[in-house]
Amino acid sequence: MAEDGKVQNSVKFDINQPENVAISIMPEVEMRSDTHCSGYRSRFPSMFERASGSWWNPKFDSAALEKQLSVSVFPLIQKRFQYALFYIIISCVVWSIFYAASITTHWVGFVVANILLILINTLILVLTYTTFYHKYYLIISISLSLLLCALCLSTFSVAYNSNISPIGAFCICIEIIIMMYTVIPMPLFMCVLIGILFSMTFEILAHTVYIEEYDWSNVVGKIFLHMCTHLVGVHMFIMMQVRNRNTFLKVAQSIMSRRDLENEKQLKEKMLNSLMPEYVWRNVLLNENRESQTNANMMLKIGASSEFRQNFTMDLMDNVSILYADIVGFTKMSAPLSAEKLVSLLNDLFGRFDNLCSKCGCEKICTLGDCYYCVSGCPTPKPDHAKCCIEMGLGKYVCYFNY
Q1: Do the Cβ atoms of 121 and 128 come closer than 8 Å?
Q2: Which of 238, 292, 293, 302 is the most exposed place for a label (fewest CB within 10 A)?
Q3: Which residues contact 357 (CB under 8 A, 6 or more apart)?
Q4: How large is the average pLDDT for residues 342-370?
């Protein structure tokens, strides 16, 4: 229940079962499929339904939808980021063991750097299970990306005296760029900005350190590979955004359709309950559902009324008391009243009679004008059916004169 009294749909996210999609739809959000950004519709295709048209920061055209998406999808993003931290920790452990066992030049520095990165990633991993990460996840992601880039570039300070070849350093660079686009949660423009600056700095340092091994063909090839890597990263980022938002909308529409179906079902039951006893209409609906499952095509050919007559059964009740109540002088009393006032008066009075029926153990049959029919001992047999009807009659008398 919201603070302003409005009911909100809410489905919680189960991290242990990622196939269970979680979503929360606010009632003021209208799920429509014909809304697009008018400025971009004529020139570029929409990336997803109800896209805002912002290519650098893909999002919905509704702030409410975007807020609900962040709440629903954040557990998956958090889980993916935790997997990335586990991967970095395991990689650092393997590299530390490798350099410690090889005892190469400057192996102590590499082991210390890897241990430092392990400690930092472990601290971030612990923070992901707290509310602190929910508030500052973007700052944490940017800091981790800058740290990874800085550690990768620091290898050039001892490049001549280490076992990291230019190809090995380039592979580490590509790996960090792909991680920024896929598993480290940041906006697209931030990924592109940090990634391009990292690529440029990496190639400048690589050309400076390995100047003897570089020629123009190598430089052009490396630039081309960096461009392809960024294009693939952007493509993967956008596809993840499109998939998340399309899934969000489909599940949201499904939940709202289910809610509408439940509302229609409750309205149908309420209408049936006002026409016949609950025991009767529940049996009618049960027979109708069974018949529709076994012979759906036949039910379409037969009308709804004929189907109702086929499934309706008559029960013989022996000990039953029927109470009939009529308002004396109703015609004279209702003459000066308008139709709206008269219907409102009868609805209020008969509503009180309905409450009295449930208290006295009677069942309402129908109303006809100012006449009110009820029965006791049917459809559920009652040994004191006559007493129930007498109490109901006396209650009506008191209710009418106190009205």
Answers
A1: no
A2: 293
A3: 363, 364, 374, 392
A4: 84
- 3-state DSSP call for residue 12? coil
Residue 50 has pLDDT above 50, yes or no: yes
Which pLDDT tens digit goes with each residue over 62-76? 777 777 777 888 888
pTM of the predicted protein model: 0.60
User: Is the Cα torsion angle 332, 335, 337, 342 positive or negative in sign?
Assistant: positive
CB neighbours of 161 closer than 8 A, spacing ≥ 6?
Answer: 105, 106
Task: Name the pairing type of β-strands 9-11 and 321-326.
Answer: unpaired
Q: What are the residues whose beta carbons fall under 8 Å from the beta carbon of 18, sequence distance 6 or more?
A: 76, 79
Could you give the C-alpha distances from 13 to 16, 72, 75, 76, 84, in angstroms and in order? 9, 7, 7, 9, 21
Instruction: Please count the CA atoms within 13 angstroms of the CA of 244 that sit on its side-chain side.
Output: 22
**Do residues 51 and 36 lie in contact, with contact meaning Cβ atoms separated by under 8 Å?**
yes
The answer to whether 286 and 272 are in contact (CB under 8 A) is no
Residue 273 tokens read as 């309950």
